[in-house]
Model the fold of this input.
Amino acid sequence: MNAQHTNQWKGYEKIAFRFFFIYFLVQAVPFDWGYYKQVFAINWAHLKYGDIFQLAHYMPQFISGAQSFAGWGMVAAIAAIGAIIWTVVDSNRTVTYNNLYYWIRAIVRYRLAIGVIAYGFIKVFPLQSPYPSLSNLNTNYGDFTRWKLFSISLGIVPGYESFLGLVEVVAGLLLLYRKTASVGAVVILLFTGNVFMSNIAYEGGEVVYSLYLIVLALFVLSWDLQRIVTLLVLQKPTTPNRFRPVFTAKWQVYARFGLKVFAVFFFVLLYSFKTATGYKHDPYQFPVTKGLPKTAGIYNVSYFRINADTIAYSRFDPVRWQDVVFEEWNTISIRSNRPVHIDSNNVERINAADADKTYELEGAIGRHYYSYTVDTVNQLLTLQNKNKFYKDEQLQLHYTRPNDSTIQLYGVNENRDSVFATVQRINKKYLLKEVERAGRSKSLKL
Amino acid sequence: MSLVQDTYIETAPPATPVNGNGKTQAASTTTPVASVWTSTQKILFRIAFIFFISIAIPNSAEWYKLFLHIDWTNLHYRDLYDIARFGSGINLFGNKLFGSTLLGYANWIITLILATAGGFIWTWIVNRRKTARAEYNLLYYWLRVVVRYRAGIGIIGFGFTKLLPVQMPYPSWGVLNTNVGDMTAQKLYWLSIGIVPWYQIFAGVVEVAAGSLLFFRRTTTIGSILLFGALGDIVYVNFAYDGGVHVYSSYFVLLAAFLLVQDVPKIYNLLILERNTVPVNFYPVFNAKWQRFARVGLKAATIFIFLVVLFYLQLVNFLYDPYKQPSVAGIKQLRGNYAVTEFRINNKSIAYNPLDTVRWQEATFEKWSSLTFRINKPTALDLSNGGGDPQRDINRTFELTGVGGGQRVFHYYADTVNNVLYLEDKYKDIPDRRNRAAGVGGDGGTDQNLNSDRNKKKEAKTTKQKDTADKFIPKEAWKNIGNEVAMIDHRAASTRRDREFAEAPKNEKRNRMLLHYETTDGSRVILTGVNENKDSIYVVLDRINRPYALSESSLQAGKY
Done:
């Protein structure tokens, strides 16, 4: 693929080009109907950043289900058949593919730019890995999956997350311009190469997609690769790219300009605006509905009764609650020794509805998570287990608040047993936050 | 060696430009050999020369002392690591600017100021004596050689602790049982790498590869780009997580940037300006035989010591003596997580209550010689990285540094004949000084690591308090315990280890416990004895099956 835009392409170069042309065209341009169904399903009057993210997160998929490399094989098969037919039809009349090479690279450049910028802005505005919830802070390290720990580690440093996002965005922008595209591709190779390795190591769900982006970056770089090697490794005189696209008709100029403006407007400007406002008003990992006012915190369960049995403090009783967390939003999590069937989602899902925002419990055991609604008239909380494996679990709990730090909860639990619990706020100091404030150089007792 | 050859003076005839719109473009080329440098270039070079030479050589007597004392016949990986990692820059006038270390960067600025002064003096002298040269091509070449090898060796020393993943250890059970909010950000980051040893290896491969590429002229640019990218990220990580190694990682970014100065214009010219580009590189020609031998010999020696020998030593460290976790195996039948079923103190039983401030809440015997337990009572914390090079297990503190939540970690010597554990708190008021060779920007630990007056006074006070430490373990018991220095695999033995054990302080002030243990198969363990407050305790531990969501790695350091 390193033809230096000479006036003569060798036979095998042309055959290889035909293959790669079709391969990357199919990989980069959405031809499948499912994609356009998605486009029409969007509520354009109320466009959300999640919609744009979904459109940007495209990879052709012939088999439904999780992304796999099998799809690539099918694209390669299509490209191989196409290349054969093309070669036969062409019967060597075409001398060079300089023009087509330029255009397929331009398509791949834009495809790749849109892909990395989509991930970039949800980090620039640290949406992707939010600061861990109170429940997550109060969960044992070993009770998380690798993928969740990876996200938590990033979530505690929003500034660093923004920086990483900025690298992706800048690399993406460099791709939009022919002369800087190779530099952008190198940055993406270093960055997304790391993302790919992380997905493998942390058992993330984007192994295929991140490698897809890497292959696109390699294709973009291949345009200049020979030149770069000649200059930097072989240290010999090097001729630059001399190819410019030819426009014979006015409409071509307009079409090019229009597409370019559209891509930049939609996937960069509009998307950055949407993620910025989304960060303020509509983050996607945690629900936005407020919880019971002035309850946020962790509570010790000082008294617990089920039916007629009072159960003393126990770490190992399968029923007794150990502590309860009220989040700022309408989630309550209860730590007990009741096992948790883990929701091990490890792919990025940008959900708009609160009920679908399950980041807080994904990849975590040790606690059960409930979303709740408040009936302030009857002082009644209706708790719904958020985990997809416990869909049928509902608790109806009346609440009273004898004082600021105490809440009494009584009602029926998921097994229709009556429960009564007194929970008392723990004035918990988190080492994570104490050190963030004071630094590590002071001595600290905690 | 006085001859300078311009390898690529001859340019290939420019290829006929192919142009989409049929217009030909004038081919422009960069000028070949710069035989005359402008006076600005020369002044800048003189400053850069003094600056980079200053930051490429060790500046502390400590390093030279360590270097001279290395026993080359019985090496420890840390011997070579210490050679590779040293403090540098001009520190004759201290490391503070206007009373501030500027996060540790003051040394760079001081060095730059002095280098600038030196550069101007140099210029003045050569101008006055009329010996000013037309160019510094040869000297520039050698300056690059120094920087390339400094950066290469440095990053390889750093990278190997990741390539054989020991820099970020896999969390101990005690840490796995600790809430995420009860750890420092630094700890959480280190752990996030520790849980994926294969990823750590990848990071190590990147660093070692970047360093190795710097040993060769043709691959220097690629190595520099890799080094710049990888370490640039690490600088940011260190600022974000308060990792403490920001200065040392910035150091490599600076060196890589210097090495790229020569190439960036070329890349810009070729890719952005789309012009013909002729790389010009001055490579000295070695005429004399001894020069050629010296060059090949030095290069081969560097590669042998820092790639081959260091790999072997680091492998041994990974297999038998991972430097951040204790290396002596713990008692096999005790290992595991335990529920504290019964807890009596001075014959008074305390029921479990998460708010109680005396009772043990849970306990763990690690794979190695540590007992971990949790008490809901604030305790002084060690917030350092838990790194450095301690040889004795008691001083290997990664399992407690940056970890709160009431976690206590005690090291034990086990008299397995009489079933007695001699336990010592791994926390110490004044941690030992670590990374002595590294100087400024070394460990990133606390102020307490430093030899400040306050600490010296504190230390003097503590040693005065004649502790019963040396009588803590009776002679007869030592016979059953054995000698710790020899309790790791013999392949991991080293002079460094022997020396440190020989010099180990005797009267350290630490909390101590003496516990008798009783168990049949480890499912129930009964501990009786005296705790750190001289209270008698009776603890019944029942082993629990504690499933973790975190999947273990196929790679595990150490032999237990």
